[in-house]
Specification:
Elements: H1 7-19, E1 26-28, E2 33-39, H2 43-50, E3 56-58, H3 68-76, E4 85-88, E5 94-100, E6 106-113, H4 119-125
Antiparallel strand pairs: 1-2, 2-6, 3-4, 4-5, 5-6
């Protein structure tokens, strides 16, 4: 994908970052994503913020309706379990993994891009270089 074709997505990610109610963003090398956690009580604000850049979503019941590439991504990252979600931007290459913790009091959102040419730009935007 041409670099400037990502401009809208990165503008939306910048808005997400500005409105994000969670902790500081960090790099998750296991999945090559940026991630931030938040308390369950902040879930409505976090969902509203995430939807700015990641408007499409699937859960364990609807994952079969996701595009092939996103279903494969879900499989590579361990599959979806109850309460977990897979989000995507307008381009399938931009995704979010919404993972509640086992304690039920914290949720983490991980954001990644499968287009390797834009990973550095993602890290720079979220301050995790």
């Amino acid at each position: 994908m041409a670099p400037d074709s990502w401009q809208t997505a990165f503008d939306q990610l910048a808005q997400l970052k500005t409105t994000w109610p969670g902790t500081a963003w960090s790099w998750d090398g296991r999945f090559a994503t940026v991630g931030s956690s938040f308390a369950l009580a902040l879930e409505p604000q976090a969902l509203a913020s995430a939807s700015r850049a990641l408007p499409r979503s699937w859960d364990i019941k609807t994952l079969a309706e996701a595009p092939d590439a996103l279903r494969a991504l879900a499989t590579r990252t361990g599959g979806l379990r109850a309460q977990q979600r897979l989000f995507a931007g307008e381009q399938d290459a931009l995704y979010g993994l919404w993972w509640p913790w086992g304690s039920g009091t914290t949720i983490t959102l991980r954001i990644g891009i499968t287009d390797g040419d834009t990973t550095t730009r993602l890290r720079t935007l979220f301050g995790v270089t």
